[in-house]
């Protein structure tokens, strides 16, 4: 996707791309409405609902009390009753106060009712650290959500995908968890990852949920990642290119459904697999991706697979400690060197 | 007869309020270092979110003046004034906010996660999160027959969390020594209390849980002292929990960097004009309980304590990066270490 961008075309931040997808869908589908904290006049702490209150009014753009149990549960009820609610959980870390509605209702009612109840809702939530917000405001928790059956999970790395995935999510008959990384939002106060701000067509379009993208083609190593990890991987790929190593970067875009085919196809080509994940190391996305290859055909791997993930510790506040834990391009390059040492001969 | 503070208590409250304000002023100044002209939260000597407590000091001192180190306080994401009133070690608190090795938690926690076991103080970042632990601390004291009460501080926005209602009910059913204190600054980030809360004031919610509910208007230090004093006495006597809602004012943004566009015109100026610290200062002078010189000396001492704490924080070393990997679990003690 990113490779198709022409320089002079309109570029948007992920925040604006999300808001645009929401407003375009709200214009054509009166069932879509938004609830969450500070999403009205403020336009969302991360800017992804900017302009919605002005265009659609307080009936469809609802600032809520700080009552996640109630309003996430309410979204489930409204979705089952024919609406298409979008709810914002300001930080994914806050899921603790409302997870019951998410994983026991939103995710399960379709199955329990054998499809006689539908839960077409979008739960959008911010992820990620890197700016010293401490251990209750910096997590990713991809694996936590993706582990539990019944919800689709997407996590865009750039604005093109963000708009397309949001539009697809709004048109889905299933619940979708839309996880956007704070470091990619294009809000200056959270730093700016330039690679996330890309060309976004003004007309509505969908990016298929469950389909990965090849963010960069290569032949020696496959790096699989999602969200901000894609940008770390691209940076590492550039560095390694200087050493004659050709890296392919697979941007999953969706965790559920997981595009296992794309992962296997890439690894079949390169013979080497590394996973970059800002979520915790163990019992998560990185293990799942490695299993996807190992279960299929371990002989595809010329070297033991590697992962660059957040160690299994709560996220520390101090900058030097957080940096020590967070994946980045340097850690990817180091992991590549270790991988080479362990390569089968 | 409402409870009245002694002169010593008044001067203690004044000193703590001034210390807290000087502390926030210093933090605000240093927070902006490295964040201008481009404001990026990740930069500067104090990165991350910063929720300042300017204006809310009376809620801290008017309650904590009745507490001693053995009493428990759970505080919020806006914890500095409460920590200072609870006598949390100012140097190590400052160092934690800077993310230094000498901080209360060696830099693991940061400004929203200050822990000082010496004075039974803890705070956390998720709205309403301290309520359950305060109830549990009170339960533990009751079960162990140990003295002490627990105070749970929250903002008015937190009174719409399920945890609030569950905690009040539980504390009441078990008649626990807890006091729930709501600092009502009228705003939960950009959302006003008026638009988010079904009742005009939260103290009436105490009725639903069969406990006394009090409302203190006007950020009034003396009125807080009286109401909190009674509630804490009641808790100590074994008569169960109380709920207090205090009308206070947030003189700063929700966090630093907040443009505060949601505030009605003139609101901020009106709040600054009602700043509780100069008001309390005037009160002390008017009653003649202390003279100008004495108050100046208190202010000077407060500034000095803050300067020393900030200098300590600034000059302390960063943690070892790899220390991030330690401290997840208490390490098993070698055999026989438990005396
Ligand atoms: C469960 C949860 N939801 C949302 C937030 C984000 N948040 C942090 S502070 C805040 C406003 C809190 O308002 P209030 O309780 O009145 O305290 P104040 O900030 O005014 O001191 C919000 C919504 C959070 N930290 N935790």
Shape of chain A: globular
Q: What is the mean pLDDT of chain A?
A: 96
Radius of gyration of chain A: 20 Å
Spans of at least 5 consecutive residues with low confidence of chain A: none
Ligand names: thiamine diphosphate
Number of helices of chain B: 11
Provide a count of the helices of chain A.
Answer: 12
Low-pLDDT segments of chain B = none
CATH first level of chain B: which class?
Answer: Alpha Beta
What count of structural domains of chain A? 2
Q: Summarize the main sheet of chain B.
A: 7 strands, mixed
Tell me the CATH superfamily of chain B. Thiamin diphosphate (ThDP)-binding fold, Pyr/PP domains
Number of E strands of chain A:
14
**CATH level-two architecture of the largest domain in chain A:** 3-Layer(aba) Sandwich
Strand order of the largest sheet of chain B: 2-3-1-4-5-9-8
């Amino acid at each position: 996707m990113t490779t198709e961008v022409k320089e002079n075309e309109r570029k948007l931040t992920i925040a604006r791309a999300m808001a645009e997808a929401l407003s375009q869908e709200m214009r054509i589908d009166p069932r879509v409405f938004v609830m969450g904290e500070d999403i009205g006049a403020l336009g969302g702490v991360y800017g992804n609902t900017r302009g919605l209150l002005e265009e659609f009014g307080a009936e469809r753009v609802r600032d809520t009390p700080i009552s996640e149990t109630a309003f996430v549960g309410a979204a489930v009820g409204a979705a089952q009753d024919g609406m298409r609610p979008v709810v914002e959980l300001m930080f994914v870390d806050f899921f603790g106060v409302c997870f019951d509605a998410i994983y026991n209702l939103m995710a399960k009612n379709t199955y329990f009712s054998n499809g006689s109840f539908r839960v077409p809702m979008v739960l959008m939530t911010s992820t990620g650290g890197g700016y010293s917000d401490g251990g209750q405001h910096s997590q990713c928790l991809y694996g936590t959500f993706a582990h539990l059956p019944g919800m689709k999970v997407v996590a865009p790395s750039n604005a093109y995908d963000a708009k397309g995935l949001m539009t697809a999510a709004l048109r889905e008959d299933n619940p979708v968890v839309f996880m956007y990384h704070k470091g990619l939002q294009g809000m200056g106060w959270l730093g700016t990852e330039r690679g996330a701000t890309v060309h976004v067509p003004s007309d509505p379009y969908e990016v298929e949920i469950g389909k990965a993208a090849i963010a960069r083609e290569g032949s020696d190593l496959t790096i699989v990642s999602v969200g901000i990890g894609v940008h770390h991987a691209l940076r590492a790929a550039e560095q390694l290119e200087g050493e004659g190593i050709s890296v392919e970067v697979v941007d999953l875009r969706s965790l559920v459904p997981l595009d296992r085919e794309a992962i296997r196809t890439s690894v079949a080509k390169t013979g080497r697999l590394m996973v970059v994940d800002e979520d915790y190391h163990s019992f998560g996305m990185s293990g799942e991706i490695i299993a996807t290859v190992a279960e299929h055909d371990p002989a595809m791997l010329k070297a033991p697979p590697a992962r660059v993930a957040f160690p299994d510790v709560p996220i520390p506040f101090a900058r030097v400690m957080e940096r020590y834990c967070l994946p980045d391009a340097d850690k990817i390059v180091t992991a590549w060197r270790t991988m080479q040492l362990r390569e089968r001969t | 007869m409402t409870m009245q503070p002694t002169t010593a208590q008044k001067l203690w409250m004044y000193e703590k309020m001034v210390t807290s304000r000087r502390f926030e002023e210093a933090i605000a100044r240093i927070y902006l270092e490295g964040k201008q002209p481009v404001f990026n939260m990740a930069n500067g000597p104090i990165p991350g979110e910063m929720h300042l407590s300017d204006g809310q000091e009376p809620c801290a001192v008017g309650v904590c003046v009745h507490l001693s180190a053995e009493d428990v306080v759970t505080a919020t994401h806006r914890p500095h004034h409460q920590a200072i009133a609870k006598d949390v070690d100012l140097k190590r608190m400052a160092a934690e906010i800077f993310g230094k090795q000498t901080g209360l938690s060696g830099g693991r926690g940061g400004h929203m996660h200050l822990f000082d076991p010496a004075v039974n103080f803890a705070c956390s970042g998720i709205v309403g999160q301290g309520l359950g632990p305060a109830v549990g601390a009170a339960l533990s004291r009751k079960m162990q027959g140990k003295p002490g009460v627990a105070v749970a501080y929250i903002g008015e926005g937190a009174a719409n969390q399920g945890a609030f209602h569950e905690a009040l009910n539980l504390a009441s059913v078990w008649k626990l020594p807890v006091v729930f204190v709501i600092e009502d600054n009228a705003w939960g980030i950009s959302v006003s209390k008026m638009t988010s809360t079904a009742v005009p004031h939260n103290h009436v919610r105490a009725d639903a849980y069969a406990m006394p509910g009090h409302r203190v208007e006007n950020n009034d230090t003396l009125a807080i002292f009286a109401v909190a004093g009674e509630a804490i006495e009641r808790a100590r006597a074994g008569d169960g929990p109380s709920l207090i809602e205090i009308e206070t004012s947030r003189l700063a943004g929700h966090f630093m960097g907040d443009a505060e566009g949601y505030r009605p015109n003139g609101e901020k100026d009106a709040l600054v004009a009602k700043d509780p610290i100069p008001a309390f200062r005037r009160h002390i002078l008017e009653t003649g309980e202390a003279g100008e010189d004495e108050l100046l000396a208190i202010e000077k001492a407060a500034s000095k304590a803050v300067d020393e704490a900030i200098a300590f924080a600034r000059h302390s070393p960063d943690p070892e990066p790899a220390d991030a990997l330690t401290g997840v679990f208490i390490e098993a003690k070698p055999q026989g270490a438990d005396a």
